[in-house]
Automatic annotation (TrEMBL):
This is Acyl-CoA-binding protein homolog. GO terms for biological process: fatty acid metabolic process; lipid storage. Keywords: Lipid-binding. The gene is LOC103510020. Pfam families: ACBP.
């Protein structure tokens, strides 16, 4: 396992320790980075416009199209570190 994989795995666990809830925008960002890091480009069908939560998540992930898994992992780790400093 590479260093970025280890850092990513730790960040996935660390984010669960937040004592306060991040903003919806921050949650969407870490969701999208996680999905891009673990699954790659979004190839799922666009959700119904009536399902706003799924629509926002889909759009946020789709914006990361073309981002490599390693880059998404690095960005995720950086974002989680920001959230830990802000919400713990």
């Amino acid at each position: 396992m590479t260093s970025i994989d280890e850092d990513f795995k730790k960040a996935v666990e660390d984010v669960k320790t937040l004592t306060k809830r991040p903003t919806d925008e921050e949650l969407l960002e870490i969701y999208a980075l996680f999905k891009q890091a673990t699954e790659g480009d979004n190839t799922t069908a666009r959700p119904s416009m009536f399902n706003l939560k799924a629509k926002y998540k889909w759009e946020c992930w789709t914006k990361l199209k073309g981002t490599s898994s390693d880059q998404a992992k690095q960005d995720y780790v950086k974002k989680v570190q920001e959230l830990l400093a802000k919400y713990q």
